[in-house]
């Protein structure tokens, strides 16, 4: 049994999850194709974060949505510990991020992921995201995939 909770981007529980995500992506992509963001460095009013905990309260996953000034947001830093993958938790994280975005009057969510992460691409497709062109601040990158979904 897992629970999803909204937390601050400054929570110490995010640190090992983000470190694991960075290590995973460092093995897949050169630095120029890594588009990570330091969540703790963003203004809290432009950001909402989700933490996944197991039945023992251990942090097992995370995700964030970063808002721009035009009722759009970007999904960032979605990660699940390998021990809890394959249980449809990714869909729950994305759904929770979409709820946070709707609550903030966001009408569009976008994301960037990498071509070497087919499970992530499939997750976002299952959640209704379609492919799109690069969006600000990104430029075309042969190792990147850009996706978006209009929120109702």
Describe this structure in words.
The chain is α+β, with helices and mostly antiparallel strands. It has helices at 14-28, 89-103, 118-126; strands spanning 3-7, 47-53, 59-67, 72-80, 108-114, 130-131, 144-150. A seven-stranded mixed beta sheet has the order 1-2-3-4-5-7-6, with helices on both faces. InterPro entries: Acyl_CoA_acyltransferase, Bact_Acetyltransf, GNAT_dom. It comes from Duffyella gerundensis. Keywords: Acyltransferase, Transferase.
Key attributes of the depicted protein:
7-stranded mixed sheet; acyltransferase activity, transferring groups other than amino-acyl groups; single chain; N-acetyltransferase domain-containing protein; Aminopeptidase; 30% strand; Bact_Acetyltransf; alpha+beta; acyltransferase
What can be said about the biggest beta sheet? 7 strands, mixed
Uncertain residue segments: none
Strand order of the largest sheet: 1-2-3-4-5-7-6
| CATH class division | Alpha Beta
Percent range of helical residues: 25-40%
What is the H-and-E element order? EHEEEHEHEE
């Amino acid at each position: 049994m897992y629970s999803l909770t909204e937390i601050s981007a400054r929570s110490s529980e995010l640190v090992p999850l983000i470190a694991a995500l960075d290590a995973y992506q460092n093995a897949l992509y050169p630095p120029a194709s890594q588009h990570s963001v330091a969540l703790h460095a963003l203004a809290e009013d432009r950001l909402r974060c989700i933490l996944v905990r197991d039945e023992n309260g251990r942090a097992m996953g995370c995700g964030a949505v970063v808002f721009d000034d035009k009722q759009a947001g970007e999904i960032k830093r979605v990660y699940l510990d390998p021990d809890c993958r394959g249980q449809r938790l990714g869909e729950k994280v994305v759904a929770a991020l979409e709820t946070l975005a709707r609550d903030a009057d966001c009408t569009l969510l976008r994301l960037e992921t990498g071509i070497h992460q087919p499970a992530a691409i499939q997750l976002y497709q299952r959640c209704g995201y379609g492919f799109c062109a690069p969006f600000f601040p990104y430029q075309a990158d042969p190792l990147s995939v850009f996706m978006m979904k209009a929120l109702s």
